[in-house]
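Here comes an entry:

___
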Amino acid sequence: MKTLIVEDDLMSQCLLAQVLTERGHEVVTYENAEQAILAYQKQFFPLLFVDVGLPGMNGAQLVAAARAMRPDIKVLFTTGYARNAIVHQGRLDRGIELITKPFTRLQLASRIRDVLDVPTARTHKPIALVVEDEALVRMFVIDQLTDLGFEVIEAATATEGLRAARNHQQLDLAIVDRGLPDRDGIDVVAELRTQLPSLPVIVASGYGDLPDHQALRNDVHIQFMSKPYDVDALTTALRALNVRTREMQ
């Protein structure tokens, strides 16, 4: 599991990283929230370990910003004092645990289990944007995504798709056809990237070659799918993007 540690105390940061690495986590560490939120915008971390008393943007503000992008993340706060900064109405929010400094390796391991054992609670159905001008193909994709538990927003042109993306900041997936009537779908994906850097995107194309846009070809959040495609090809692309659906739980 990819885990983001944000801790300005280097001794605590080292202990957190060591224990998590021993438990099989892929760990990335930062000493301040500003650097951490930039990293979070580029890739999804299911688990965050955050010191409440960070300099500048504090830990509670960092987690609020991260949860605005992905409400289903799990969080372990570390703190030596500012408990009230993260307690609401006498309790911690769902998916958040707290460990008070100083702590031992045994205490830390126990808290890790506590936070990971809490079932993930989504505040909304996952939302998918489908930008496809062929009506029959669009209907097929919408039916499949609906069966997988998505709420679907549909668009038949690049202009409609980009407008929909601007109006829905909580998108969980986009499927974009390259052969749109008003613009190349690759241009649409490039614009989506500036707005939602870590949004999983499937590019559907009847063309045989991949796009010349090198950044998109190397983007781990993008999968290319040849047309015509079936349910198996769609679910394979979703799995490659680590998109969790009702059928994949």
About this structure: Residues 10-22 form the longest helix (13 residues). Residues 200 and 242 are 8 Å apart (CA to CA).
